[in-house]
Amino acid sequence: MNSASTKLLKSVLSALHYTGLGSLVAPLTRGRGVIFTLHQVHPETRKGFDPNGILRVTPEFLEQVILQVRGLGFDLVDLDEAVDRITAAEPSARPFASFTFDDGYRDNLIHAYPVMQRHGVPFTIYVPSDFPDGRGELWWLALEDVLRRSNEVTVQLMGAVRTFPCATTAEKQAAFETIYWWLRGLPEDRARQVIRELAAGAGVDLAQQCRDLIMSWDEVRTLARDPLVTIGAHTRRHFAISNLPADEARQEIADSMARIEAEIGRPCRHFSFPYGDETSATQRDFDIAAGLGLASAVTTRKGLIHAAPRHCLTGLPRVSLNGDYQRSRYVEVLLTGAPFALWDMLRRSQPAAS
Ligand SMILES: [Zn+2]
């Protein structure tokens, strides 16, 4: 989400909180439950240039959300139970909430797991299967490191050589925004090539970064042994599925499921689409995921979950608990469902894009 729409959503959240309108409409908009998206969990908050900070929350915030969500009357369930509740003919008396973490960061084991254990909360970690091998390319973090170390970077952008000054925090931030979104629009193989070149030029070791930040298979297995934990798949290389031809898309998903099953010795029934927005995962991809026998697949489309078939089980929306919304009043309003109903209404009132 760009910063203008983040600002807009924050204003909507605050307005709904202070007017009390959110809780008033909650019985209409809350639906059957919610799946939360998280990435990194780390006690440190960084100052200055921190373009991926939105992907990080503190263990204290995570704990506060657990208490808050329970206090609001949600049952905290694993994804198998969530799927049962979405497909049940009758809704449960209480809504459900399910916690999911994307990418397999080691800090999930170190900082999130103790919190989840302490409160007995089930959770899912979606692992891109190349990552625990130390072969993952966390290109969004590599781009951040390149810009942090450099005073300027030069890229071949849309046929033209462009040099971005990045001596100051503001310049680094502006360069990140432009280069990040440009890369997101490229075929993924090409984007990775650009990142490899930038990383090599700035002395950033992609493989080392992956080994430092992502769990090994031994660590994944440590978590998988706990009945609270579900390990889901997240492709092999963390590619945007919708940009791949259908056969390759199917292969990316199937390979990651098979590898996880082989490593943890249990069926892999749940999947998360990398990036997960409207441009990275489409109906074609939801159908591919269903065809592979997945019980659920999640996106980063925003929303609470209503009864099937209103939501396709392999294209489920989630609610992001990212660093942008690290305030308890935002969480409370998000869980009423009102912001998503409002968001859908606003989107429907816009002229359709051609
Ligand atoms: Zn991811």
CATH architecture of the largest domain: Alpha-Beta Barrel
What's the story with the biggest beta sheet? 8 strands, parallel
The total of beta strands comes to 12
Bound molecules: zinc ion
For the record, the count of structural domains works out to 2
The helix tally amounts to 14
CATH superfamily heading of the largest domain: Glycoside hydrolase/deacetylase
Structural account:
This protein folds into two domains: 3-133 and 214-349, Glycoside hydrolase/deacetylase (TIM Barrel); 139-207, no CATH class. It has 14 helices and twelve strands. It has helices spanning 3-19, 21-29, 59-71, 79-87, 106-119, 139-149, 169-184, 188-202, 206-213, 217-224, 246-264, 283-291, 328-334, 338-349, and strands spanning 33-38, 40-41, 56-57, 75-76, 96-102, 123-127, 152-157, 160-165, 229-233, 270-272, 296-302, 316-320. The strands form three sheets. Strands 1, 4, 5, 6, 9, 10, 11 and 12 form an eight-stranded parallel β-sheet that branches. A two-stranded parallel sheet has the order 2-3. A two-stranded antiparallel ribbon has the order 7-8. α2 crosses α14 (338-349), α3 (59-71) runs parallel beside α5 and α6 runs parallel beside α8 (188-202). It starts with a helix and ends in a 5-residue tail after the last helix. The mean pLDDT is 88. Zinc ion binds next to loops.
Main attributes?
single chain, 354 residues, alpha/beta, TIM Barrel, 2 domains, eight-stranded parallel beta sheet, two-stranded parallel ribbon, 14 helices, 47% helix, globular, binds zinc ion
